[in-house]
Write a structure and sequence with these properties.
Elements (H helix, E strand, L loop, with lengths): L12 E5 L4 H12 L3 E6 L4 H11 L4 E4 L5 H15 L4 E4 L14 H29 L2 E6 L3 H4 L5 H21 L4 E8 L5 H6 L3 H10 L12 H8 L10 E4 L8
């Protein structure tokens, strides 16, 4: 897929959580192709991916190995990115974990683990980049949520709780930091067929049932999420903040 060029993203300092696999890898490549200075974090080594991205785009990202549930390590990674690329002006909170679980099986440890990945890390990443965005005269934060909570899906209640919380956080931060020219939006993908989804949950019956719910009868892949994210990061959306954009082929509707 060819993505449009957003000229203001050239040279922008971008920080992506979970930027080495799945949707995050597509986002990293998308920003690199815009000429942005991209740093990303992930739990597993992404050295090969970094080398491949440099070969494919001519633009080498900065990879910092980090578990985002370790808030001190996440803040340190953001500081390292700032030192390398200047104040972060685009934050993409993408990393998440939608491990399936049943309500009656959830204990406190699992609940805390799920919220630490899917909500807590988002808040503290925002908190860490906002001073630099103020210094830079503004910025854009894109918080990835999901349509799962809008659909009322079962099978991962801790995850859908965090998804809904991301929208509340997004709206509050948009209101608080709008006077600083910091825009904060949420992006809610539908069922994007990453390699993980294909391996764990995308059996033919489930795929057919979900496609039936979509207005557009094509399954989403990670590349479908790139242009909407670039748009929300760029000046093309300069008067859009506090919103949640569903990119799902028309499963849910709002307004």
């Amino acid at each position: 897929m060819t993505h449009p060029t957003f000229t203001d993203l050239g040279g922008a300092s971008v920080f992506i959580t979970g930027g080495g696999s799945g949707i995050g890898a597509a986002l990293t490549e998308g920003f690199l192709r815009q000429g942005a200075k991209v740093a990303f974090v992930g739990r597993t080594d992404a050295s090969d991916f970094v080398t491949q991205m440099e070969a494919d785009t001519g633009n080498r990202p900065l990879f910092i190995q980090c578990d985002i549930t370790d808030i001190a390590a996440l803040k340190a990674a953001i500081a390292d990115s700032t030192k390398a690329h200047g104040p972060i002006t685009v934050l993409v909170n993408n990393a998440a974990n939608d491990q399936r679980h049943a309500t009656l099986d959830v204990d406190e440890a699992f609940w805390d683990w799920s919220q630490s990945i899917n909500l807590k890390a988002y808040f503290f990443a925002c908190q860490a980049v906002i001073p630099g965005m103020k210094q830079a005269g503004g910025g854009a934060i894109i918080n990835f949520t999901s349509i799962s909570y809008m659909m009322g899906n079962t099978g991962y209640p801790a995850y859908t709780t965090a998804n809904s919380g991301i929208n509340g956080m997004t709206r509050s931060l948009a209101r608080e930091f709008g006077p600083d020219e910091i825009r904060v939006n949420a992006l809610a993908p539908g069922w994007v067929l990453t390699q993980k989804q294909l391996e764990l949950w995308a059996d033919p019956e489930a795929l057919a049932a979900h496609l039936e719910r979509q207005c557009l009868k094509k399954h989403l892949d990670p590349d479908d999420i790139v242009t909407p994210t670039l748009f929300l990061a760029s000046d093309a959306s300069r008067m859009i903040t506090g919103q949640s954009l569903a990119v799902d082929g028309g499963v849910v509707v709002s307004g």
